[in-house]
UniProtKB/TrEMBL annotation:
InterPro entries: FlK, FlK-like_dom, HotDog_dom_sf. Coiled coil: none annotated. Pfam families: FlK. It comes from Nocardioides aromaticivorans. This is Thioesterase. Residues 11-120 form the Fluoroacetyl-CoA-specific thioesterase-like domain.
């Protein structure tokens, strides 16, 4: 079975472009959408990790295609499309959820690459 995960988020004032410094409008900011896409990839890879392992993001390609207002709901899905050793690549999509509770208009799409690492070893390599 291909690793995947779907997470649902509600846009708050703290998630807006105005709040995260990526613009002046009170709509979902691209940095927050990106963080939500990464969270979905983390959830998707979680079951494949051994004790002491985690994954780190190494590359992100994201198109933010539609605005989402405060109070709007976004469903973010990550599906693994490639794996080679420690490398994992995920297709991500975010859809605005309609009043009927169903995912509707595509709000964003892209690809996130993660690498599985030993957490202790990774942190041990940091300067300082």
């Amino acid at each position: 079975m291909t690793p995947s995960a779907t997470l649902t988020f509600t846009v708050t004032e703290a998630d807006t472009a105005l709040a995260v410094g990526s613009g002046s409008l009170p709509v979902l900011g691209t940095p927050r959408l990106l963080a939500w896409c990464e969270a979905a990839t983390c959830a998707a890879v979680e079951a494949d990790l051994a004790d002491g392992e985690t994954s780190v993001g190494t590359r992100i390609e994201l198109e933010h295609l539609a605005a989402t207002p405060v109070g709007g709901t976004v469903e973010v899905t990550a599906r693994q499309v490639y794996a080679d050793g420690r490398l994992r690549r995920f297709a991500v999509s975010a859809r605005n959820v309609g009043a009927d509770g169903r995912p509707g208009r595509l709000a964003g799409s892209g690809e996130v690459t993660r690498v599985v690492v030993d957490a202790e070893r990774f942190l041990g390599r940091l300067p300082g």
